[in-house]
Amino acid sequence: MIVKAENKHIKISPSKMREVxxxxxxxxxxxxxxxxxxxxxxxxxxxxxxxxxxxxxxxxKGFEPRQLYIxxxxxxxxxxxxxxxxxxxxxxxxxxRRTSHIKIELDLKG
Length: 110
Hints:
Blueprint: E1 3-10, H1 14-24, H2 29-37, H3 44-61, E2 68-77, E3 81-86, E4 92-97, E5 100-108
Antiparallel strand pairs: 1-5, 2-5, 3-4
């Protein structure tokens, strides 16, 4: 692990986030960014933000983006927002709005 970046409390369920993360796992940084830019899924904005943060951290440490690849991408479960929805006969049914924590680690190729 050369560089890492993370973002917490993202209002997207972890299962939807992992679906997009599988597309960029173990890819070059520039290739992964191109994949995310051309993707038509909602989690891409959060992943692009974290990936660009990791690239900026790498530049501060003196590494070029073309030298790096994504060595680890993790999506953990964040706290769920508990809400209620009106149901029949004056009842209420619970809703859990799930959140995610993203962590990206970059490493040198080869």
